[in-house]
Amino acid sequence: MNATDSLLVPLVDAGGLNGLKHAALGARYRFWRDEDGLRHVFSVYRPDAAPDYPDALAVVSRRTPAGSIAMWAGPASHARTAALRMRGDEIHIHVFGEENAPALRRLMDRSLMNRSPMDDRETPALPRPVVQALCLPARRHAA
Length: 143
Description:
Blueprint: E1 12-13, H1 24-28, E2 29-33, E3 39-45, E4 56-64, E5 67-75, H2 79-86, E6 90-95, H3 102-113
Antiparallel strand pairs: 1-2, 2-3, 3-6, 4-5, 4-6
């Protein structure tokens, strides 16, 4: 287990955009590796500024000197609440395109399946985080 491995979400921090670490775009985008080892690009937002995209996976993360740690993953509509409850530093959002990124789609589906019937009231409760028991650990690959 590395310093940036999450206990609850099978995503591994894969760094920012190469060559743009110190430029504005370098801080705006982040790569995460899924449980299959594939890299996916996410947009980085402050917790209070994250958009509520309808078909997007959000990852609440905490920054450490070694990199980001994923603390929660689920629909973007619940990300602000999750960040507040988990004291996350950032929200990273991946908008699904034509190719749905199956491992990321599974994270979203698991998050929605773990909701209780009480979550459908007017003020929706935070979906439960994806539990490690349901996920395989992420595999490390060279960038």
